[in-house]
């Protein structure tokens, strides 16, 4: 419940940030006149230093005057003097450009105070452990409670979850590296209802589609009825689940689950699986005395993660270790808890 309340608060906060974006548009226009004025005034001052009129030269406010001590005497060391003067000119012009860039940056920042709020909100949510991140090649999509963030080499795309329309626009099969298999890539278009935010596409492996859509608050429209293939691990988890459900149920002393017991894997479901050793595993003895701590889905994901990923045909006959006491078990050693 607390998690849900937090989620709502954050969503509301993000919506407020979105409203702020609209309200501040007027303030942006007011500040947009500052930049041209700064450019004109600074340009004149810079021109006076770079190409000084006679009056400025007489005041000593030109490059030769400013760097006089370091340049030395032209009459005594003509070549050295002009080599140093060239370096001094390059440094002075470089500093002028740098000061201008810093000035523009300060003006831009001052004209958009809402940006700071949005940045803080995004960073705060990015630190949450319940965000979902999917990396595909050089690009990474992160979905937090309120935001969709996509980073790649040159771009950062940001969209507010409550503010977007998501649609599946294409799927494509590409060969897998070092394998004869092919993997399916999906392209999801993110269109913001805010006209100031641009539309962008997220391209990701179909394997991550479900994880991502579970975290998104908006449904991904599939108006073209594109078919997304189930990933190998999803297919395995379905068979794994059927096998465990066919095993004898557990009704021992650990079947008295507390109401507030939650699976340590997903923190959502109630734990409902107990390891009960039935099969003889070479080199492994003893039973698991741990109380049920995982839901069927999470123990399945744990099981898959410990198998040889290159040989999926061996997964179902494989063994894994209890995440807590390290007792080895097979799929036949898992029982659903018979809650009493
Ligand atoms: Zn779980
Ligand atoms: Zn155990």
TrEMBL record:
InterPro entries: TM129, Znf_RING/FYVE/PHD. It is a multi-pass membrane protein. One of its GO terms (molecular function) is ubiquitin protein ligase activity. GO terms for biological process: protein ubiquitination. It holds the Pfam family Tmpp129. One of its GO terms (cellular component) is endoplasmic reticulum. It is found in: Membrane. The chain crosses the membrane at residues 34-52, 87-107. It comes from the Eukaryota. Keywords: Membrane, Transmembrane, Transmembrane helix. Its main location: membrane. Belongs to the TMEM129 family. PANTHER family: E3 UBIQUITIN-PROTEIN LIGASE TM129 (PTHR31322:SF2). This is Uncharacterized protein. It comes from Salpingoeca rosetta (strain ATCC 50818 / BSB-021).
């Amino acid at each position: 419940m607390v998690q849900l309340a937090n989620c709502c608060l954050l969503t509301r906060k993000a919506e407020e940030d979105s409203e702020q974006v609209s309200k501040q548009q007027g303030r942006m226009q007011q500040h947009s006149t500052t930049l041209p004025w700064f450019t004109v005034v600074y340009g004149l001052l810079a021109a006076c230093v770079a190409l000084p009129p006679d009056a400025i030269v007489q005041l000593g406010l030109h490059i030769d005057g400013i760097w006089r001590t370091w340049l030395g005497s032209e009459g005594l060391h003509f070549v050295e003097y002009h080599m140093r003067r060239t370096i001094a000119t390059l440094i002075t012009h470089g500093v002028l450009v740098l000061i201008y860039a810093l000035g523009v940056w300060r003006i831009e920042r001052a004209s958009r105070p809402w940006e700071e709020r949005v940045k803080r909100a995004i960073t705060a949510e990015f630190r949450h452990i319940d965000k979902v991140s999917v990396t595909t090649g050089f690009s990474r999509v992160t979905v937090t409670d309120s935001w969709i963030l996509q980073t790649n080499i040159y771009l950062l795309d940001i969209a507010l979850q409550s503010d977007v329309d998501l649609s599946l626009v294409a799927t494509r099969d590409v060969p897998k590296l070092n394998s004869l298999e092919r993997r399916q890539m999906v392209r999801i278009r993110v269109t913001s209802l805010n006209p100031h935010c641009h539309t962008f596409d997220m391209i990701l492996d179909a394997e991550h589609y479900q994880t991502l859509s579970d975290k998104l608050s908006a449904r991904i429209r599939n108006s073209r009825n594109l078919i997304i293939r189930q990933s190998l691990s999803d297919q395995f988890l379905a068979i794994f689940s059927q096998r465990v459900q066919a095993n004898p149920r557990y009704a021992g002393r650990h079947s008295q689950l507390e109401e507030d017991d939650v699976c340590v894997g997903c923190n959502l479901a109630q734990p409902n699986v107990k390891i009960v050793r039935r099969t003889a595993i070479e080199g492994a003895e003893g039973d698991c005395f741990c109380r049920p701590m995982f839901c069927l889905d999470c123990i399945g994901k744990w099981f898959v993660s410990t198998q040889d990923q290159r040989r999926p045909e061996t997964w179902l006959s494989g063994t894994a270790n209890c995440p807590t006491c390290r007792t080895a078990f097979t799929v036949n050693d898992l029982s659903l808890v018979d809650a009493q």
